[in-house]
Amino acid sequence: MKKQALILFAHGARAASWAEPFLRLQKLTQESEPELRVELAFLELMQPQLPEVVKKLVDLSYESVTIAPIFLGQGGHLLRDLPLMVEEIRQQYPALQIQQVAAAGEDAGVLQAIRDYCLRAVAVNP
């Protein structure tokens, strides 16, 4: 069976506390799928960054990674920066299978969860 990993890819920020929801998401995801390795990588300002995470996975003999951007939309970072990074990684590790999916916010289920959260906020403060 192929060793597969999921990389949750977030932007990064200067404040360390900004990473907390992403760390919780990583933990929740890992607990849901114990046989799947779940890593967290950042675009900038925080560590680890995507190339480091991929190197670690390759060193651990992972053969396939899926990169899931935890962004609300497909902005410049996902349209320009991430594809360039992925292409560099593909050149560096040609045997590694890499799949990049759309931003989390492009998923209908994610948008519905955010909608539900917003509507609950209104219900709490009528």
TrEMBL record:
SUPFAM superfamilies documented for this protein: Chelatase
InterPro entries linked to this entry: CbiX-like, Sirohydro_Cobaltochel/CbiX
Keyword field contains Ion transport: no
GO terms for MF: lyase activity; metal ion binding
Keyword annotations of the record: Lyase, Metal-binding
Entry superkingdom: Bacteria
Name the UniProt record assigns to this protein: CbiX/SirB N-terminal domain-containing protein
